[in-house]
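Schema walk-through. Below, the input block comes first and the output block second. Nothing else is stored per chain. Lengths vary across the set, and this one has 208 residues.
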Amino acid sequence: MSALTELTQLFSDEKFVLSVFTAAFTVVYALTAQRILFRSRERRKDRKSRLWETLSAGFSNGTLNTVDDVVNIYKGIHELGGEDVSYRSGLAKYLREYLVNVISSKDRQADEISSIKDKVTGIIDAIETESPYSDVPAAERNLIIDVQKFIAHNDQASAREKLSDLAGLIEVRQDSLDRVQASNKWSVPLAVIGLVLTVVFGVISLIK
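--- output ---
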């Protein structure tokens, strides 16, 4: 049998074709997922860098003075619509990170750091006053607000009941988190093992 005939029979083998296709698909999928993840991380880093640079410039030259000014900058960088209110938790988070960066900076004068700190702190306070506990999930946030209302009206029994509900919800969240973490602990090693085995079997089919 000629080498060409053997090669033709080899490529006509369904198992061989399936193995090669599976190996190729797995490798392409892994590379694509890695590239998407990398681009997403780079996009977040770029947005954070642009926001921090804009805030520093605006606070230094006095063009950023109100909460609306900072909100508009944040929405512009993150391409959010005017009616989008999802910015609150994200903006507060970025402002806290920016505040840490400013305070730990060795390139700024003490009076500049103090001025920026006061402005950023005031903006964070205004955001949290408008939408308290914006960093907290909706269910927990509603329970906390209810507790505050009951305490303000001296309704201790209702406040304790809401606190009990909150504790139960936190326990459920923690249980779900523990299960997800336990699952994720093995997901990456199993994916790597699966990829290696797929490539190995593909090579074996190629050799046979």
